[in-house]
Structures are given as structure tokens and as C-alpha cells.
Amino acid sequence: MSKKIAVLTGAGISTSAGIPDFRGPDGVWTKHPEQTKVYDIDAFLTNQKDREYSWRWQKESPVWNAQPGAAHKALVKLEKAGLLTLLATQNFDALHEKAGNSPDIIVNLHGTIGTSHCMKCHAKYDTADIMARLDEEPDPHCHRRLKYQGDMPCSGIIKTDVVYFGEMLPDGAMEKSMRLVSQADEFWVIGSTLEVFPAASLAPVAAQAGVPVTIMNMGKTQYDNIATRLIHEDIAVALPKLVDETIAEAQSDEQ
Fold this sequence. Notes:
GO terms for molecular function: histone deacetylase activity, NAD-dependent; metal ion binding; NAD+ binding. This protein has 255 residues and is of the alpha/beta class. It has two domains: 1-19 and 68-110 and 171-254, TPP-binding domain (Rossmann fold); 31-61 and 113-162, 2-Layer Sandwich (SIR2/SIRT2 'Small Domain'). 36% of the residues lie in helices and 18% in strands. It contains eleven helices and eleven strands. Strands 3-2-1-9-10-11 form a six-stranded parallel sheet, with helices on both faces. A three-stranded antiparallel sheet has the order 5-4-8. It is elongated and about 65 Å long.
């Protein structure tokens, strides 16, 4: 019977792919607190200038242009080996999808920049299509034609599927994550400071269920005391190594 591993990833896995974190000492919001407004739902809904700034900022942000790093690719390898049952992430950079992990096991706790939706009729959009037209339409609105409104365009505000400040987490995301974490044989926390709730509560959920916890992070976290394994090394090197060791171990167990 192959091992079931549940994983939570945070900003640390993406900093290795060139995305600055938001809350660290050199974080985007630590240095530029005014930029938290980019993801403020009230400002976004009520002010066209704030909406235009938010879209432009997101398009120019490293989040949009980044490519998956060695650590992201290692988690694809873990999934292909049949060992990964959950990839919950606090990141909204869509790098796990870009790397090739299956949408079935990814839970975007804080949403994703990869897709967008109309806030009025809930039509879905690929963010890439919107970004490609941002010069012509700096404040994107929904072009879906509504049959029940005489085929007039909906014209609702479009926003990315990132969870903005003041919004709820995606429906069922935490419930699914908690269930799969407590059913796992191991729970790995990769590059999360475990400061942002409710995502951070997955660590104590695992510990209470008797699931061994691995925390891989450069700095300390408030849950280091419940970890069975702490790894304070460069994630781009340490995670591929851990994945290879885990796969080798699982294969020798099966023989």
C-alpha cells in the first residue's frame, strides 16, 4: 500500500522561483504597505482607478510572469509516483498548475491568478486572455451576452480568482484540506511561515490526527514544536532531495 502524503506550500517555495514574498522582512507588503490595496475587495469594487491599478500591478508583478522552479517540479514527480494526495497552497501564483500537478489534488486556499470571473454573472475567464487585452481594456468588464436581457452584454466587473482582503476563502477548500491531511501518512509544510490562518491550522490538525509533520522552511514557525522533522535548508535543493528519498523508500517497501 503506497504512502499518502499531504502537502501545504507557502511563499517560500515560490521565492526560489523568483517571486518575492509578501510578508517576510523583504516582502512586497513589508516594504510597500500601500500595495496591500491591490487586493482590497472594497477598493476594487467601488473605485475604477483602484481596479485599473490592481490589474496593471498584477500584470507587471513577478507573480504573473514566473515559471515553476525545481521545488515545484519535485512535487509533480511525487504525484506521478502516486504518493501525493493533497497539494494545498497559500500561493495564488498558479505555479503548481504550470508545473504540471493535477487540478484534482491542488487546493488553492487563497485562490489563483490563473483564472478570473465576472462578479455579476459568474462567467469564467482565463486571466491570460484578459492580460493580453489590458491595454485596450484597462478596467475589464464582462462581455458575456445575456439571453434574458435581450442579448445585452452583462458588463459586470471581472476580478482574478485570488482571494482579496475582505473575501471568504474558496468554498470547501479548508474542509477538503483538513480531511485529506488527517487521512494522510505524512504532512509536509513547504515554505510556509504558518502565520496566516486558517491555512496554518492544518499543522495542528495533522498533529492531532497523529500524522507526522515535516516543516521545511528557512525561518522558525510557531509549530516547530509539533514537527517530527525540521528542515532549514534551501527549498529548491532540499525538496527535490526529500522527494527522491521518499520515492526510493516507497519503492523498496513495495519490493
